[in-house]
Every structure is written in C-alpha cells, then in structure tokens.
Write a structure and sequence with these properties.
By secondary structure, this protein is mainly alpha-helical. The chain folds into two domains: 75 residues, no CATH class; 39 residues, no CATH class. The protein has five helices and two strands, in the order ααααββα.
Length: 152
C-alpha cells in the first residue's frame, strides 16, 4: 500500500517563509516566525510553536494566520504588507501620476453605467467616467422605465 501526500498551501507558505529567512523548521526558529507573524496580525497571545508545527504537518491555518504569512512573504518581496493577496494587472493611467511598478492600494469604484469597464481608484465623487456614459445610462434607464417587460 502506498500513500501519497500533497503539500498544502499553508504548509507551502510557511516553508517559503523559513526558506526566505534561511531557517530550518527547528523549534526556536518556528517560535521566532510565530512571533513575527503574530506581530503582523497584531495577535495576543502570539501563535505557538505547536500551531506552526501542525501546519507543517498539513493542518490548515486560520484565515488570520494565512493573511499574516502572505503579508510577511510579500514584504520580503518588496511589496508592502498591505499588498498581500493582491494581483498584478495592467492599468491605463496618466504617467504624470503613476510610475512603472507603483503599487496602488485604494478601493475601486465602477462607473455608474453597469456595462462600462471603467473603474475609479480612490474615493472620487464622480459617478460617470464621461458625458457619453452618463447620457447612455440615462437613455437605458428611461427605456427600462417605459418598457419594464423588456430585459436589458
């Protein structure tokens, strides 16, 4: 009989942290990492050696610990801890406001016209991306009000 084991995502995260720090999975090292992760998550009392060693045996981590592990790894890669769990994608922006490689950590708000792909970054008071979207949305909404039985 043969058993196959697959490494869990949380186990992989913890092993990556140990590797990046150049540490083994020895008890003092896991205590050190547990303290670092607890500080990131502002957890008191800190996570224990036993909890981290159980994760290395395949037990799942809490959402809070998983977030702390992602944050620590992100900070090791030069990304702010608040950038953990975020993904990279292409944005069209005015080059006067953004440089290549900038990390944007603001909420995103869509244009009020439901089919418009434009998203606002930050907290703008603006509802529509342009006058055309505003006019089209008004036209579509008034059409819906006049003809409620027709789906958009």
């Amino acid at each position: 009989m043969s058993f196959t084991t697959s490494i869990t995502t949380h186990e992989r995260l913890l092993l990556s942290i140990l590797t990046e720090l150049g540490l083994s999975a020895a008890r003092p090292n896991l205590v050190l990492v547990a303290n670092k992760l607890s500080a990131i998550a502002r957890k008191e009392p800190p996570w224990s050696y036993n909890y981290l060693s159980n994760i290395l045996r395949g037990e799942p981590a809490s959402k809070r610990l998983a977030w702390a592990m992602e944050s620590l790894l992100a900070s090791m890669d030069g990304v702010p801890a608040s950038g953990a769990g975020k993904v990279e994608f292409t944005v069209l922006a005015d080059p006067a406001h953004f440089q290549n490689g900038v990390v944007v950590l603001l909420p995103v708000k869509p244009c009020w016209r439901p089919v418009c792909p434009v998203r606002f970054v930050g907290w703008p008071a603006q509802k529509y991306c342009c006058l055309d979207c505003k006019k089209l949305d008004y036209k579509e909404r008034t059409h819906e009000q006049r003809h409620p039985h027709q789906a958009r």
